[in-house]
Amino acid sequence: MQDRILVVDDEEGICDILARRLTAEGYSCTTAHNGKEALHYFYKDTYSLIISDIKMPEMTGIELLQKVRAIAPKMKMIMVTAYPDIDLAVNAMRLGAYDFIIKPANFDLIVMSVKKALENKRLEDEIDAYHNRMEELVEERTAKLQQAYRTLKKAHLDSVKVLAEAIDAKDPYTRGHSDRVKRMSLAIAKQMGYSEERLENLEYGALLHDIGKIGIKDEVLQKQGPLNNEEYQYIQEHPLIGVKIIEGVEFFKDKIPMIRHHHEHYDGNGYPDGLEGEAIPLEARIISLPDAFDAMTSARPHRNIMSLQDVLAELERFKGKQFDPKVLEVFLREEIYKL
Ligand SMILES: [Fe+2]
């Protein structure tokens, strides 16, 4: 494509000779006789290069340079002047002029400068195009990676859900227990201002809190009737069995405290470590509430179903004993038990 050059000089003779010379070199030229006129052409059309005199009426070449570069910071401008002055030259170059030529103009020198400037512009355009293409490629790849990450993350959570269902299936009376504990735990944590990352961690912990039950014999888990002391102690091993099951998996490392401590009591009378109050990880204090609530409201062969009113009264009775008062307060205030 033919490069278009805007030639600006208040001396019509110079302007015309220069335009003719550049036309002979194969460029398409437009002439203007002051900065204002030049600016008008610049707004109207697209130019590859501007050659401008500096000292002109109405608007100087320096003003023109500033106005053009403000809109088109990459525009190549060659400044020409009959009044050589080092400060002027430095200023013009600082404002982004490509070259500074002194009159009386040596046309060969100007043509050479034009060729160099246009070659420079072509290289810059190529680099820009290359950068744009690279950016597009990076965006495309990033989008694909993000999609793959989402798919992988969902597949991972789905397999943990399947595992949680398998845990619940060991005990026919706890179908859906892990999922309900997860939903209510997340609702409590949201009210407590948990970050997305912490919520995600809690989601896994809540789903897997009873994973240790995999290691508990079915006949004890599924026993019809109350458990004897020995059986009760045996079942209390499940948080520690759970820790053993997952401790070798890097991803689950930070879920260990939730699994280990979900049967601790706020007053220190829980198991396995008898931790008390704030010493129990907050996630474990959260999980333990819906865990107990769901167990109370599930049908058991040796126990009648309690009414919701009785269950809530029971929870209140254990406030500060089994349950963290703050967690219980959120659970009751937000009616999270209705989830
Ligand atoms: Fe448990």
Strand order of the largest sheet: 2-1-3-4-5
Major β-sheet annotation: 5 strands, parallel
CATH class of the largest domain: Mainly Alpha
Give me the number of helical elements: 14
Total beta strands = 5
Overall shape: rod-shaped
User: If classified by CATH, what would the architecture of the largest domain be?
Assistant: Orthogonal Bundle
Q: CATH fold name of the largest domain, please?
A: Hypothetical protein af1432
pLDDT under 50 segments (min length 5)?
Answer: none
Question: In angstroms, what is the radius of gyration?
Answer: 39 Å
Beta-strand content estimate: 5-15%
What's the mean pLDDT score?
A: 94
Secondary-structure element pattern, one letter each: EHEHEHEHEHHHHHHHHHH
Name the structural class: alpha/beta
Helical content, roughly? 55-70%
Give the N-terminus to C-terminus distance in angstroms. 69 Å
Give the name of the CATH superfamily of the largest domain: Hypothetical protein af1432
- Distinct compounds present: fe (ii) ion
What is the domain total for the residues? Answer: 2
